[in-house]
Amino acid sequence: MTAPDTASAPPPGARTPRPRRRAGGERATERRLAALLLAPMLAALGLVVAYPVASAVYRSFFDDPIGGEPAFIGLRNYADALFGYGSEGFWAALGNTAVFTVVTVVVETLLGLVMALVMHRAFRGRGIVRASVLLPWALPTAVSAVIWGWMLQPDGIVNALIGAEVVWGGSEWPAKWSIIFAEVWKTAPFVALLILAGLQTIPPHLYEAAAIDGASAWRRFTSITLPLAKPAIVVAVLFRTLDALRMYDLPQILTGGANNTETLSMLVVRAATSELKQGYGGALSTITFLFVFLCAFLLIRTIGANVFAGIREEGTR
User: Has this prediction a pTM greater than 0.90?
Assistant: First the structure.
């Protein structure tokens, strides 16, 4: 037998040298792979989002001649929309958009929370209830608008149920309420679905421990359900707010903008297509984009910052 070779063995207590990792090379490879995978998506976004937005902003600095080439006029289209001949229609559309957004989002959040709590409970036929609740959201918006237009006729089912003869499209506020009713019926199930996903992440043992400690149902709801479901509620509010701010098809089909029900999106489409004012329409679309972006920024700063910061802190523990 040969004696073991101890000359090359490390001394007792010494650390065995580890092979040096090629961290820089691996990270560079990962970055190249990420860029390669993101390239198709970025190209598609550039075609369908960046180019149209840039074209609208560029066109907004030119006038709308009946014949001939458009001339550069700077910010005149923006001044006309905010303070000039189009200011009355713009501020009216902005007010209608704000009213529709605030009322529908608040009502949908409350109804969505109630529906999510009902669907979250274990009872016989829960699957049928979930499917029936989601049916309005599954319908196309145009179909929902046509259905509500039939039901809101003077001899329709809505007047028959309330026992009154309301001409819903005949004056301002009945027309606005008809849009709000149809929008809430259409999108409250979407809010309920998002909140239900948040409720299903709450551990059941928290409710059991609270019940053992003598907490009432209302105390369990305010101390456990609402705080733990808050991230899902915030996401639902953000999604619905951004969606309501660009409302177009539902009021367009129901009222056509009559009786002071025109929204910002309807105003932009009318200016760019019906009135053939590409420059003025580009200015309106740019203002609408900035308004929606400002609303999203303020919402995230006010109601979303603390929630998402808490999620990041939990993920780093």
Answer: no
